[in-house]
Description:
The chain is of the alpha+beta class. It is built from seven helices and 16 strands. The protein has helices at 2-26, 32-36, 71-74, 146-149, 195-198, 234-238, 335-338; strands at 98-101, 110-113, 132-136, 142-144, 156-163, 172-178, 182-187, 190-193, 208-214, 223-228, 263-267, 273-275, 295-301, 310-315, 321-325, 331-333. It has a four-stranded antiparallel β-sheet with strand order 1-2-3-4. A hairpin with a 3-residue loop joins strand 6 and strand 7 (182-187). 30% of the residues are buried. Mean pLDDT is 88; it is low at 17-39. One calcium ion is lined by residues 164, 166, 168, 170, 172, 186.
Amino acid sequence: MKNVKLQHWLIVFLAVVIGLVMFFCLSPIPNSNDVENPPPPPPDLPAEPAATSDQTRAPPPLPTIPFADITDQAGIDFVHENGAAGETLLPETMGSGAAFFDYDNDGDQDLLLVNGTTWPHTELIEPAATSALYQNDGSGKFHDVSAAAGLDLTCYGTGVAVGDFDNDGWRDVFIAAVGPDHLLRNVSGRFEEVTSEAGVAGDLRAYSSSCGWWDYDNDGDLDLFVCHYIQWSRDDDLAQDFSRTGGVRDYGPPLNFGGTFPTLFRNDGDGRFSDVTAAAGMEILAESGNPLAKSLGIMPIDVDADGWLDLIVANDTVRNFLFHNQRDGTFAEIGVQAGIAFDNSGNARGGM
Ligand SMILES: [Ca+2]
Ligand SMILES: [Ca+2]
Ligand SMILES: [Ca+2]
Ligand SMILES: [Ca+2]
C-alpha cells in the first residue's frame, strides 16, 4: 500500500518536472540582437519647408473654369445703350435685365435682352436702341427676331419679368423702365403691347427697377409686383452736387434721393390689373413718414411653407422687406423679425 502511494507521488513529480522542462523549451528566448537593435522609431513627419527670404510662395493653381464666352459664336451682338451723355444721371449706372424663355413654344430657350435708350433731352441716335429678342434655332445659334416678333421696344428699360398672365400657354413679357412700364402679350409668338388695356404702365415718372410675376392670392392667375428704386428726376439729379475731387461731376448715391413705394397689381382675370398696394399693406413708411423702399430686387418664396407665396424685397441703403402673406390679400412686413432687414452689424445693405 505504501509502495502504491509512493508510485503516485513519483508520477506526479515526474509530470511536474516534464511540464516545467517543456515550458522553458518552448518559450521564446530573447535575442540579444533585439535588445541591441530596438525597433526603429516612427518615421518623422515631413519637415515644414523652409520659409524663403521674402516669405513668398507660388500661388496654388487656380481651378479650371468650365465656361467659354460663346456670345459671338452664338450670334448675340446686342449692345446696351445707357444714354450717358456727360450729365452722369443715376439710371445710367444700372443694367436693364435679360430673360431666357421659350417665346415660340418650340421647346428651346430664347433670349430677351432689354435695352436703355438715349435721354429725351439729348439728340436721338438713329436707329434708336431697342430691346432684342434672339430666337434659338436649337443648334446653339441665335437669330435676332426682335422686329418680326414685335419686341423691338424703345424705352429706358431696367428690368423684365416673363409670365403667362392670361393662361393661354404663351409666355408674356413685362418690362420695367424709367418712365412708363410695358406689358406685351404673346400672341402665338408675336408680341402686342397691352399696357394701357391692362392698366400697368404705373406712374409715368416712376423709376421702376425689378419686377416679377407671382400668384399671391392663389386664384390661379399671375399677379405682378413692380419695384421702384427712388424718387428720381433729371432735374433733382442735376440739382445735387455729386462732385469728385477736382470738381468733376460724378454719379450720386441713392442716399440723396427719397424712397418710393413698390406696386402690387392684382390680376383681375379679364386682361386688366388693379393696383392693390395700399390695401395689401405694402406701402412701408420710414420714421419720417415718407416712403421707405428703394427697391432693386425681389424673390417670391413661400418662407413658411403654408402654400401662400411670401415676398422678399431687396432694398438699397434701407432695410430689406419680407412680406409675409396673411392669406387674405394682405401682408405683414416681418423683415426685422426674420433677420433679413439688416446685416450682422445692424446696417442696411446695398441690396440689388
Ligand atoms: Ca424657343
Ligand atoms: Ca399668355
Ligand atoms: Ca392671382
Ligand atoms: Ca407663405
